[in-house]
Design a protein that fits this description.
Bound molecules: zinc ion
Shape: elongated
Strand order of the largest sheet: 13-12-9-10-11-17
Mean pLDDT: 81
Distance between the termini: 40 Å
Helix content: 40-55%
Strand content: 15-25%
Length: 378
């Protein structure tokens, strides 16, 4: 399995870089215009029409080729003609960029420029033994320059019978995540924090003054970063504590299209299930764990013991056929793990069958997010 990763690293903003990005953006717009006008979607066919022109504008040959390729990619996807304000430059390693002994050398309009790069600790492993692919140079809205190193590496999926264990993960609103090995990640603190964010946002929007708009801009990314951090911590804990070979998650495509009432819709549209699943996925894949997505249809309403439909209240599930009752999210995670093991006819130990009746009476292990909150004072 080929896994990709990105390391975003800040470099100094020099005049050459600013001018290179400006010229590259102009050339990209020119290529897009030509491709759109001539209805060309292939970079080799577009090449003779634009190459000389953009070379004359001062673009280095490898950057010119990257520019043509990028424009064709954009035109292929677009429904209306793309308008480029500020482009990200694509660098291919060994051709237009190189990285050795913490020194990044990239092509600009004034020849090669070298930058001393300080690699943050969390990215060191990628530079050690991952392959660097085509990477991006970008200047953000605040004028800071970033180089996005794109890495890839092949991982083997665990196949040994010893590891054939399956973990179901149910994501939700009352509990951020519940796993079939009975670990609960409570959403109470996160919910309170998000309510606080929403109230502050509404207040600032109503005020409408210049300083309130300034503050709004400042807090816009804060909530996103807060949720991202929580999701990183939860996914890390789930993946690191699991010693098996398959994780089963729900396919949540279209979850927001279903009408569920005003309050529920508010939470669904503001929740980050997809991000959590994405984090679990990439962290698991790097450990060689297979990720399976299954349809969420009736997973929270089916009894995980006798497979009949039961009744579900907000956070409690009870089966009228066999009398089994437990936490609704835990029941869903059992169903996910079981569903996959039956579909695949796995006759090896699964984490699920340890089922006791009156589950709700025993207090499940709860990992609340209070401790995480402390680092996020806003
Ligand atoms: Zn039942």
């Amino acid at each position: 399995m080929n896994i990709k990763a990105v390391a975003k690293i800040k470099i100094n903003t020099t005049n050459e870089i600013v001018r290179t990005v400006k010229i590259y953006s102009k050339c990209l717009q020119f290529c897009v215009n030509q491709a759109w006008k001539k209805r060309i979607r292939n970079n080799i066919k577009l090449h003779p029409f634009v190459y000389k022109n953009i070379r004359d504008k001062g673009l280095q040959s490898q950057l010119a080729i990257a520019c043509i390729k990028q424009s064709c990619g954009m035109v292929k996807k677009a429904k209306t003609k793309p308008i480029i304000k500020k482009a990200s430059i694509r660098y291919s390693f060994s051709r237009s960029a190189s990285f050795k002994n913490n020194i990044l050398s990239i092509a600009t309009i004034k020849g090669r420029q070298k930058f001393q790069v300080k690699i943050p600790e969390c990215y060191v492993k990628y530079f050690d033994n991952w392959k660097i692919n085509e990477s991006l140079l970008r200047i953000d809205n605040k004028g800071k320059t970033f180089f996005m190193f794109c890495f890839s590496k092949d991982f083997n999926v665990k196949n040994s019978n010893l590891h054939k264990r399956i973990l179901g993960i149910d994501v939700g609103i009352n509990n951020i995540a519940v796993t079939s090995n009975r670990v609960f990640f409570n959403a109470k603190q996160v919910k309170l924090k998000r309510i606080k964010f929403n109230k502050l946002r509404a207040k600032l929007q109503a005020k409408g003054t210049r300083s309130s708009r300034k503050l709004l801009k400042k807090i816009s990314g804060r909530e996103k970063r807060f949720m991202g951090c929580i999701n990183h911590k939860i996914s890390k804990q789930i993946v690191n504590s699991f010693n098996g070979n398959t994780i089963v998650i729900e396919n949540l495509k279209g979850i927001r299209k279903v009408r569920r009432g005003k309050r529920m819709n508010f939470w669904l549209s503001n929740w980050s299930f997809y991000q959590l699943q994405k984090f679990i996925k990439y962290k698991a894949e790097r450990k060689g764990i297979k990720i399976v997505t299954v349809s969420p249809y009736l997973t929270s309403k089916t009894c995980s013991k006798c497979k009949n439909l039961g009744s579900r209240s907000v956070c409690f599930f009870s089966c009228l056929h066999c009398g089994y009752s437990l936490n609704a999210d835990l029941n869903a995670s059992f169903n996910l793990a079981k569903h996959h093991s039956i579909a695949d006819d796995v006759s090896v130990p699964v984490t699920v069958p340890d089922i006791r009746v009156y589950e709700h009476k025993s207090s499940p292990r709860t990992i609340a997010c209070e401790t995480m909150n402390k680092t996020h004072n806003c």
